[in-house]
Specification:
Layout (H helix, E strand, L loop, with lengths): L4 H19 L5 H9 L5 H97 L4 H9 L3 H18 L4 H63 L14 E3 L2 E3 L16 H4 L3 H12 L3 H19 L10 H24 L6 H23 L5 H20 L5 H32 L5 E3 L2 H10 L5 H5 L4 E3 L4 H20 L6 H29 L5 H16 L1 H12 L13 H28 L17 H16 L5 H23 L9 H19 L16 H12 L2 H7 L12 H18 L7 H25 L1
Antiparallel strand pairs: 1-2, 3-4
Length: 804
């Protein structure tokens, strides 16, 4: 039978499977057998045959081995049977011995068990003692209930130290116990509780310091004022003799000067026992220190610093908010300053007493913010003040406020700069107040020379006003001083104004030269603006007559002369020589000169108005045939008025009286000329011309009588020259001379204008036509009429020639 390759491979594979079955665990036989069935369809039959052959082969080998060992096995069983009887005997003896031994050792066993139990108890006790010794520090001296008691007594730092010991030392030793785990879990809660309690105390502190900061500020400012007063007194003593000047600080500490120890409690006898209070005396800062320490220990210092600074910024903004009616009373300003000072005194103490809670940069930022707000508030509210006393008290408060904070290291230059603005406001209120004073003085003045009955009265007036006149001093009593009672009153009030202005300059830390300049500038404002305005308004008042205006001119003259004494007065106050470079001069001279010129102008105006009133009373009969041979009544009344008025002018400067007289005469001449040439006046008779000529003659006589001394020759009469030449031309009827000499410098009628002559001649021509109906039948009248018509034509040609 031929064996193919495929059959050979199958046999080899079966052999390998059999070897695998023999060498592996029976649990792995399943996959091996399955591979047989997966092969060729008849492969399992051949494998079964192969397997049967292998089993028979193994059976033969087993049988051979059994046959080889069978005899030895039989021999062993035979010997074992022989030993069985002896073993049973021995077993009986062992059992008996064991029974007797158990009975004999039962008592020993009981005692041994007792010893073992005692040893176990002893070991447990030792272990317990050891563990208890580890737990004792954490359960007695530093236990959690103890921490709670410490918190209840506000000993937060001690509680934190206790918890730190528990957490780092004691709890790790006994961490396996449950109560320790509970303690460890409670420690964070206790820390948060301490933080919350300390933060609550801090909030209470912040609220309290917000309410009581004005008390702290009031104390600090009062001490600053006392120290400044004391130092000023010491400075005065030092100027009189040798004395070591102390340097004070508002923080209550003692300073030395030239090696001498000065205590803040030294001073006047009345203040010797007064205790110097500091911010720490008035405020309990322990909540801040405690909270800062707690947050530092807990590693959360930055959070605390941030919270504290944020809250203080909010409080700063609240402190800087003024009351709406703060400007009404000084107490409103004082409370406002006290709160701000109290706030920054507290911050300065916190800055110096703590390490880094607040920094100098933070306080400087707060101060700069506050300073800008303070300046804005003071600018706004001071502008509402119209009482100079209130503004002065405000200035004193600002000075004390600035000095107090400057002693604590805060820059206050901007506050002193603000004082210059407040000074301007103060000057404005003073000017308003003194304007009322001046008006009242002017209203109550009688505008009459001051009567002096006795020498005491004279000395009293001279003591109030620097008046010196040798002629008046030689006169016997009673006598009169040229100025009215308002002059010494005005002079005194100007000095009072200087004193009031000086009050503001005190304590401004300015030099004498600067103070002198301030006084002179404010006095200039008083003179050039307030007093000048009052004088101008007074002069313009309708009830002020010529007599009053004359007295005003006299008064301003004396006030002008007194300006140099005001210069000396300011110099004596400030001890600054007027020759010092850049010294401001008083402008009183120009003020009184302007007022005098205004009064003079008003005199001219009122005098002309009075002349116009008399002119309006004129009642000429322009068609009269002949004059009555005497001047008009209204004109005589006017001349008498002018004579009496010019007699009052004797106290005026010569030029003023002369100018007034010349102005009156010119105005009178112009008014009379306008009366003749009035367009509403259509006809004028020769009789009216004659009457008018009589009136002009009275005016010329008045001018030639020298109503005011000082005129040279016939200067005053020249005011009526135009009228005189015009009237002479018509009275003499000298037309041939006028027409022949017209335009010649030597003409007799040089001041007669052709247009003026033509206008008047036209009115006379119309009169001749109306009143002389039958004149055409008389040869002389016809010749005169022809002459008038001829002159009219010639005058018209002259007028036309002038216009062309």
């Amino acid at each position: 039978m031929l064996i193919t390759n495929e059959t050979l491979e199958c046999i080899t594979e079966h052999e390998r499977i059999l070897q695998e079955i023999e060498s592996t665990d029976t649990a792995c036989v399943g996959p091996t057998l399955r591979s047989i069935y997966d092969d060729q369809p008849n492969a399992h039959k051949r494998f079964m045959e192969k397997l049967d052959a292998r089993i028979r082969n193994h059976d033969r080998e087993i049988e051979k081995m059994c046959n080889f060992h069978h005899q030895g096995f039989v021999d062993a069983i035979t010997e074992l049977l022989k030993v069985r009887i002896d073993a049973e005997k021995l077993m009986g003896q062992v059992t008996d011995t064991n029974r007797r031994l158990q009975e004999a050792g039962r008592e020993v066993t009981a005692q041994t068990e007792e010893v073992i139990c005692c040893r176990i108890q002893q070991r447990n006790m030792a272990t317990t003692v050891e563990k208890l010794q580890l737990c004792i520090p954490g359960t007695t001296a530093v236990c959690v209930p103890s921490v709670g008691c410490t918190i209840c007594f506000c000993r937060y730092y001690a509680a934190l130290k206790t918890m730190e010991q528990l957490e780092k030392v004691y709890i790790p030793r006994v961490s396996q116990y449950r109560f320790c785990q509970i303690m460890a879990e409670n420690l964070p809660r206790l820390r948060e509780e301490i933080k919350e309690i300390s933060m609550s105390d801090l909030k209470d502190f912040l609220e309290s310091i917000r309410k009581h900061s004005d008390k702290v500020g009031e104390t600090a400012m009062r001490q600053a004022q006392q120290h400044r007063t004391f130092n000023s007194a010491i400075a005065k003593q030092a100027s009189m003799g040798h004395y070591t000047k102390p340097v004070y600080s508002l923080n209550g500490r003692t300073h030395t000067h030239n090696g001498l120890m000065i205590d803040d409690n030294t001073g006047d006898e009345d203040e010797a026992d007064e205790e110097i209070l500091t911010a720490q005396d008035l405020v309990d800062f322990s909540p801040v220190y405690r909270c800062l320490h707690i947050y530092t220990v807990l590693g959360d210092r930055e959070t605390f610093e941030s919270y504290y600074r944020k809250q203080r910024k909010k409080q700063a903004r609240l402190v800087l908010q003024p009351q709406a009616n703060m400007h009404e009373t000084v107490e409103g300003y004082r409370k406002y300053f006290n709160q701000i000072v109290g706030f920054f005194v507290v911050e300065d103490h916190i800055l110096n007493a703590t390490q880094g809670l607040v920094t100098r940069a933070f306080t400087d930022e707060l101060w700069n913010m506050a300073l800008s707000k303070i300046i804005a508030v003071l600018r706004t509210h001071s502008s509402y003040c119209d009482d100079p006393d209130l503004v002065l008290e405000l200035k004193n408060l600002i000075v004390i406020f600035a000095d107090t904070l400057q002693d604590y290291g805060f820059p206050v230059n901007r506050l002193f700069d603000l004082l210059f603005e407040v000074r301007d406001q103060y000057n404005e209120t003073l000017l308003k107040k003194w304007a009322l004073v001046f008006r009242e003085i002017f209203e109550l003045d009688n505008y009459s020379p001051i009567p002096v009955e006795t020498e005491d009265e004279y000395k009293l007036v001279v003591s109030r006003f620097p008046f010196h006149d040798a002629e008046i001093e030689k006169q016997d009593f009673p006598k009169k001083l040229p100025m009215s009672q308002s002059v010494p009153q005005i002079y005194t009030q100007v000095k009072e104004f200087i004193y009031a202005s000086l009050k503001f300059s005190e304590s401004l830390h300015r030099s004498s030269t600067e103070i002198d300049d301030m006084l002179r500038k404010s006095t200039n404002l008083l003179l050039t603006r307030t007093l000048s305005s009052c004088l101008q308004n007074l002069i313009k008042k309708p009830h002020i007559g010529l007599t009053e205006l004359v007295q005003i001119i006299i008064n301003t003259t004396h006030l002008e002369q007194a300006c140099r004494y005001l210069e000396e007065f300011i110099t004596n106050i400030t001890n600054v020589s007027p020759e010092t470079v850049h010294t401001t001069r008083l402008y009183g001279l120009s003020t009184f000169k302007d007022a005098r010129h205004a009064a003079e102008g008003e005199i001219y105006t009122k005098l002309n108005q009075k002349i116009d009133e008399f002119i309006q009373l004129a009642d000429y009969e322009w068609g009269m045939a002949e004059s009555d041979g005497r001047a008009s009544g209204y004109l005589m009344d006017l001349i008498n008025f002018l004579r009496s008025t010019f007699q009052v002018f004797t106290h005026l400067p010569g030029k003023v009286a002369q100018t007034a007289c010349m102005s009156a005469c010119k105005h009178l001449s112009t008014s009379l000329m306008q009366m003749l040439l009035d367009t509403e006046l259509k006809q004028i008779s020769m009789g009216a011309i004659q009457q008018f000529n009589l009136d002009v003659i009275q005016c010329e006589l008045f001018a030639s009588s020298e109503p005011v001394p000082g005129f040279q020759g016939d200067t005053l009469q020249l005011a009526f020259i135009d009228l005189r030449q015009l009237l002479d031309l018509f009275m003499v009827w000298d037309w041939s001379t006028y027409l022949a000499d017209y335009g010649q410098p030597t003409s007799k009628y040089l001041r007669v204008n052709p247009a003026t002559a033509l206008a008047l001649l036209e009115k006379m021509k119309d009169t001749s036509k109306k009143n002389n109906i039958f004149s055409q039948f008389r040869k002389n009248d016809r010749d005169k009429q022809k002459l008038i018509e001829t002159v009219v034509k010639q005058l018209r040609s002259l007028v036309n020639g002038m216009s062309s």
